[in-house]
Amino acid sequence: MWQWVFTRIEPKLTRLKNEIGKTLGEQLDTEKQPPVQ
């Protein structure tokens, strides 16, 4: 499963064009942001 996330969701250009891809992509982008201080 983690391989699928890194190959399909991580790169913005290859994200799924549906609600699942949008939701997982937004969550991943949020997790990757530096912490707010």
From TrEMBL:
<protein>
    <submittedName>
        <fullName>Uncharacterized protein</fullName>
    </submittedName>
</protein>
